[in-house]
Amino acid sequence: MRVFLIIAVVFCLFFLGFQIYASMATEKSNEQPYTVIKVEKDFEIRFYPVVTMATINSTAKSYKELSSPGFRQLAGYIFGGNSTKQKIAMTSPVHMDINDSVSSMSFVMPEGNTKDNLPEPNDTKIKISASTAEYVAAIRFGGFASDKKIEEYTEKLKSALIAKSYSFYGSFRFLGYNPPFQLWGRRNEIIVSIDYKLK
Predict the structure, then answer these.
(1) What is the DSSP letter of 123?
(2) d(CA 123, CA 57)
(3) pLDDT lower than 70: segments of the chain
(4) DSSP assignment, residue 5?
(5) In angstroms, rounded to a whole number, what is the distance separating the alpha carbons of residues 155 and 126?
(6) What are the pLDDT digits (tens) for 34-58?
(7) CB-facing half-sphere around the CA of 10: CA atoms within 13 A
(8) Bridge-partner residues for 194, per DSSP?
C-alpha cells in the first residue's frame, strides 16, 4: 500500500510539473500580433495586420470533425513536410472557419515568413497565402472548446455587437491557443470582422 501511495504521489507531481511546463511553454510561444483598439464589457475590438497563413479547406461542418484532421495536416507541413524539410515554428492561435459550405483551418506563419520565402508544402491541399488586414471583435472563453461552446459564445458575441450597434460581416471564426494536452489556463476566442470606421 505504501509503495502504491509513493508511486501515486510521484505520478501526480510529474503530471503537475508537466502541466505547469505546458502552460509556460504556451505563454512563451509566438502569438499572432494584434492591437487592442477598444475594450467593451463582453468583448474587445482589435486590429490585425497582414500575416502569412498555411490553410487547408475541408468539408467538415463542425469543430469535432475539423480540429484533429486539420491540425495533423498543417502540423505535417511545419514539422518538415515541405520541399526543403524545413521545421517552422508553431505560432498561436490556430484559426478555424467552420460553416456548412467549405470550412478551413489555418496556421499563422512566424513573422518574416511570406509565400515567397516559405517552402512548398508536400501536401498540395495546403495553401500558403497572405491574410487581409482587418478590425475584428473578439470574445474569450476558457476550458476545452466544443461545438456547443463555440455556438454559445458566437451567439453571445453577436448579441453584444448588436446591442452596441457594431456592424459585422463574414463568418464568426474560432481561435484556439493551446495544445490538446494542456488541461488548465486554456484560451479560446470567437472573432468576427467589423466595420470599425462606421462606429
Answers:
(1) S
(2) 12
(3) 1-29, 198-199
(4) H
(5) 30
(6) 999 999 999 999 999 999 999 999 9
(7) 6
(8) 168
